[in-house]
Amino acid sequence: MRWDRTDIPKIFLCLLAISVMLGLCMQLTAGKADSAQPETLPTGRQLPEEESLEMEHNIIQIESEMPNAADDAGESKLIALTFDDGPNVLYTERLLDGLAERDVKATFFLLGKSAEAYPEIVRRIAEEGHLIGNHTYSHLKLTAGNEAKFLEEINRTGEIIAEITGSTPAFCRPPFGIWNTRYEQRLGIIPVLWDVDPRDWCTFDTQTVANRILADCHDGAIILLHDEYETSVEAALLVIDELKQQGYTFVTVDKLLIDP
Ligand SMILES: [Zn+2]
């Protein structure tokens, strides 16, 4: 086949049409890829198998997509300690003393029933600059059948904490990490999971708990602990001393999730 000059505009038009079609194809593919993304939240980690529940599709496990900034030399590494299930009459104040001595702020996800029982500890947590979050009233695990009760517990706990501290928590930690994304708008609350779990509830050895945290911690990590155990409180203070030496700065979870 031979080409002459009169074919040039045809060839040009042909090439133009091909490139427009290719462009359209690429856009369509990209759109599909976006819509195929699983629902994710900016916080937390994937739950272990045994904690997951078979539930209706819109109750999800929140996948890990933590900020994981580079450990650039000279850049401050941020880390958040979180304490669930308090306030505890035996150990929370001891923890608060240790945090104050070290000038460290942490996040406390409180149970409504315990906040009601020990309002003076809740007040102290707030006054000392720590962040308070909501952990339901009775440590209720969300299931497909108890949605109304779960919402009621979150609201009730928010009211109890607001009555003591003057402000309603903006963050919650759903017990067992089970959450429904629809609640975020409905309740105006942000769920916060974790990505370092030293399993302090089943290892009552301070050094083991501390070692597990040290082995897994990284810039942007949210560490799960419970201030109802003496060993967890001791481990937290050990870890603070060690990680400060490594250049970490301890912050409340809002600093990791909201600030850039
Ligand atoms: Zn809990």
Main features:
alpha/beta; 14% strand; globular; TIM Barrel; 9 strands; two-stranded antiparallel ribbon; 260 residues; 42% helix
Give a verbal description of the structure.
The chain is of the alpha/beta class and 260 residues long. The chain has one domain: TIM Barrel. Helix content is 42%, strand content 14%. The strands form three sheets. Strands 2, 3, 4, 8 and 9 form a five-stranded parallel sheet that branches. A two-stranded antiparallel sheet has the order 1-6. β2, α2 and β3 form a beta-alpha-beta unit. α2 runs parallel beside α8 and α7 crosses α8. The longest helix is centred in the N-terminal third of the chain and has 28 residues. It is globular, with a radius of gyration of 24 Å. About 20% of the residues have low confidence. The site of zinc ion has 5 residues, from β2. Zinc ion binds next to β2.
